[in-house]
Amino acid sequence: MNYPYDENNENKENSVNNENKPQENNWSQPVQYTQSPYTPGNSNVYWGNVTPQQTPPPPRKKKKWVWIMIVSIVGGLLLLAALGFGTRMLMAYIGEIELDVPISEAPTTLRPHVEVEEAPDIPYTTVRVGEEGTLAALDVVQVVEDTMPAMVSIDVLVTQTYQDPFGGFGGYFGFGSGYSYEQDVPGSGSGIIIGQNDTELLIVTNNHVVGNAKEIAVKFIDEESVNAYTKGTDPSYDLAVIAVPIQEIKQETLASIKVAVMGDSDALRLGEPAVAIGNALGYGQSVTVGYISALRREVNLTDGTMTLIQTDAAINPGNSGGALLNMRGEVIGINSAKYSDTDVEGMGYAIPITDAIPIINELMNSVVVPESERPFLGIMGQTVPESYRKSLDWPEGVYVSEITEDSPAALSGMRAGDIIVGFNGSEIVSMEQLQEQIAACEIGETVEVTVMRGKRDARGNVSFEEVTLNAVLIPRSDANE
After folding, report:
1. Are 419 and 397 in contact (CB under 8 A)?
2. 228, β-bridge pairs
């Protein structure tokens, strides 16, 4: 028998990103005057250096020597014109010789790209970091051409639970039907190839892209799509590393991809150009260009506060997990969020790569535990929405909508409708946090779960009481028997 398991499937409320355009450079715009140069009471309007016309003086008597001077001047001008034409012809000829050299053969100090199957010098325990001064500044086209092989599109499938306005939450308290249903919903994001080990190609992305995905597919630059799995996640930094088995990747694809070079986000300066690459709206890789608008910006997000890079390069839905690049083709940030408001334009955010590298190195060396061997509590639920907490005065936590039969949760006395607010002494405010706590436990471990249990009085008012439960975690494989 298959039991629902929603400890790894939270319905998150993701903000969407709308496309922004970089602000135009005012220096390139003509000066627009709000008033015309007109003085009341003065009928003569003067523009520039134009002056009122004067009466011409009487003509003077022509002299013979004037014609001699005119002929001399005309002859000199004709000689200069001939010399100028010859000079232009010579310059044009020289220019044609120089242009015979193909652009692709022009010298460059850009670090040669390393193909994935030939990268023994890149240790998989750390990401590839560019050395200061080794990369030359490029134009946008060169940046894109050199870095695109290291970018991937990510498609995911997430199971979401839908319910009536009070169904999933209020049905157990007597208001609402309790009706709910599940549906698999597709999503998209972006990723950056950061390394490999003996068996896996490693890709970094955002946790909110793959954290709750039941299926993950990665599409490379040659449009080849391969299934992937989660290697490790860090929700607090919104980072995740996913892996693709190298044996599942065609040789032609391996030859077309490369490992990205990491830059130094601490060396960024305001006004520095930036290039964002990502799978915008799931249509495939696209490029936007802007500038570094702010550094170390404290941004309040749904799950907490993060210190991010602000850019006016458009960060759209699907760009999450993609690269923010400097003009040397180095990754300086991982695109993560955008301020979305009708009155706001050009406020996209990226995780500084210097902050992310230590976390990425840890995640890419994580040992993947098969889902069947992970500790299992046996609930379906979701984070209590802020609207319920404000309007109904419900506590923060995870609302339990369903209990798996004979699961640790069921045997502990947990009920559908309980709100989990604590786990082994730690406060629980979200489903994601509960998942982390369960994953950190051992199979067979007894855990203490604190729930708030709601009840109605005779007048129909709902109140909560705190209940402490003990559950012995089992492997998921045992729950499916």
Report:
1. yes
2. 216
Residues 324 and 206: beta-carbon distance below 8 Å:
no
Distance of CA 203 to the CA centre of its chain: 14
The 10s digit of each residue's pLDDT in 224-251 is 999 999 998 888 889 999 999 999 999 9
- H/E stretch holding 283 reads none
- Let me know if domain 265-358 sits in CATH 3.30.1330.10: no
| Identical topology for domains 265-358 and 371-479 | no
Q: Domain segments of the chain: what residues?
A: 265-358, 371-479
pLDDT band at residue 456, thresholds of 50, 70 and 90? confident
State how far Cα 130 lies from the chain centre: 21
Query: CA 111 → CA 145, 205, 330, 381, distances in Å?
Result: 13, 24, 10, 49
What residues are annotated to the active site? 208, 238, 320
Supply the CATH classification number for the domain 371-479: 2.30.42.10
Least confident of 147-151, 258-262, 296-300: 296-300
pLDDT digits (tens, 9 = 90+) for 333-351: 999 876 655 566 778 899 9
CB 328 within 8 Å of CB 345: no
